[in-house]
Amino acid sequence: MGEVERPRSLSRITVDSDAEYLDAYDHVTYSNSLELLDTIAETQITLNLFMNNKFELAEERMAELYDKSMYHSMGYTCILFIKAVMTVNKQDMEKAAEACKMSVEVIERFRERRSIKETIFGATAKGKKMTDEELHAELCYAQMLLIRAMLTFFHDDNFASFIKGALNIRTCYQTYRYCEKLMNEPSVWVGRNKKVQEQFESGTRMGLGTFSLMLSVLPSKVLRLLEVVGFSGDKVAGMRDLQHVASMTGTLCSPLAKMVLLTWHLIASFVLGTGQPDLEVCKRIMPGLTHLWPRGAIMLFMKARLLLISGDIETAIHYFNMSIESQDVYKQFHHGCYWELLFAHGYQRRWSHAANYARLLMKESKWSRCVYTYLLCIFFAADETVDETKRIETINALAGKVDGLRLRIAGKSIPVEKYCGRKAKRFVATKSLLFAHYEFIYFWNGFDIFGKNPKLVRGVLEDMDRVWQMKKDTVDVDDYCLYYFLKGVSLRHLQLYAQAEECFKAILERESSIKSLTYLPPNATYELAMLRISEQQFIEAQTLLDKARAYKSYSLENKLHFRIHSAMGTMGCRTPMM
Question: InterPro entries, per this entry (predicted)?
Fold first, then answer.
C-alpha cells in the first residue's frame, strides 16, 4: 500500500485517538491505495473527521482520489450533497450534481458487465464470478442513485424532474434488492475476504432497512400501490436490519445505522407519526457514538434532542448551545439548533427567546423564510412584555409578508407554508392570532414532547384560560373551537379524559359553522380516537380514525394522515385502501 505525506490530512482514527487526530495535522500519512478495503478504511476515517467537525479535512481527504476510487467518489459526493441541502445555494447544488454525475461514472467503471437479457429482465444473484470491486460497485451505485434522486428534487422544481427522481429511487431500490440476493447467496462468498463480505452486508442491510422504515410511515393505500411495483415497507424488518448493522462493529455502516436509528426515534417518529420513540434504544446507542464523536455538532444535537424528549428541557437547551459553539464552518448546523431552541423555549412559554430564534432563522436560513416569518409573528404576538403599540405594528408588518414568501418544490406548494400563509391572511382579515403559537406547537408534535411534564401542561392550560377570559366575548366560532381544541389536548395529556372529550365534542357540534380553521374537526376526531386508545377501547378508536381520515381538503391534511397511520399501527391495524 503506497503512502505519501500530506499536510492537514490524517491516516487513522480510532475511538481512543480523538486528541491525536484533532491536533496532529502536519505529519501524518495518507493512503493513496486503490485496494477496495483500503478505500473503505479511508472512508471510515473521513466519516469520523466529518462527525468530529473536521468538515474541510473530510472533504479534502475524499477529493484526493474521487475520480479513481468509488468509495472516495461516493464520500466526496455525500459531503457536497449535505452542504448543498443545508445551504440551498444554487452553486452548491450544481457542484453536488456534477460530483454525483462523476461519481456514477466512476462506479460504472467497476460494475459487472451484464448481458442484454439480464439488463432487460433483471440481474440474478449469480455473483460467484464477480470480483470484490464489482460486488461493492452495485452497492455504491444504489447509494448514489438515491443521492441523485434527492438532488433532483431539491435542484429542479418541475414535474418532469420529480418523475425522474422517482424513477431513480425505484432503480436504487431494485439495486439494493439485487445486492440482497448476492448477500444471501453462499456461493458468492466462497473464498472471499471476510471483511469484504461484512462491509457489503452492512451496506446492503442499512440501505434496505432505511428504505423499509421510510416506506412504513406511508398510509396503506399508498404502500400497497408501491408494493405492486416491488417496494416493501415492513417497519419490523427495517428495524431488525438496522439493529443488525449497528452491531457489526468495525464496518463503515455500523455507526451510520446507529445514526439512522437515532434519527428515526428522536426526529422522524415525531414528524411522521404520533411521537412514540423507543428511548431505551436511543440510550443504549448514544454512549458509544458520543465516545467516538465527543465534540461533534451532530452528536451534541442528537444528545440534546434525547434530553428534550425525555423531559429535561434545560439540559437540552445547554447541549443545543454546545452544538452551536462546537463549530462555525457549517453555519447551517446552527439553524437546526435554532429551530429546536425556538420550540424548547416555547414549551416553557419564554416567547421573547422563541421569537429571537425565529428572527435568527429568518435572517440566516434559506429553508423557509415563510415559516420563520410566521413564527416570529406569532411568538411576538404572544410576548406580552413588549409594548402593545409596537407589538401590533410589528405583527401587522410581519403577517403581511408571510404569504409572499412561500416556495414551491417539484411545482407544488409546501403544506406547512400554505398553512402559514392562510393563517397570516386570516389575521389580516380578522386581526386575530389567538393561540396561534400553541397551535403551531401542537402541529409540530410539541404537546407530545412537553406533555410528559404535567407542570408544563398545567402552565399552558392556565395561560390559555387567562387569555380566554379576556377574549371570549369577542371571538368568532373558529377561535372558539381552537381554544377548546387546545384545551382538550392539554387535558388529554393530564389524563383528564372526560373533560378532554367534552372539549372535542364542542368542536364537532359547531363543525358546520367553522369558516377558516376547517382542519379542527378532523384533528378533534383524531384526538377523540387517541382518548379511546388510552382507554383501550380499540374498536371505537378505529372507527374514529376512519372518520378522521375521511375528511378532505384542509390544511396539513397529510400530517394528520401520517398520525392516523401511526395510531392504526399501534393497534395492529392497517389504514384501509379507500
Answer: IML2/TPR_39, TPR-like_helical_dom_sf, TPR_rpt
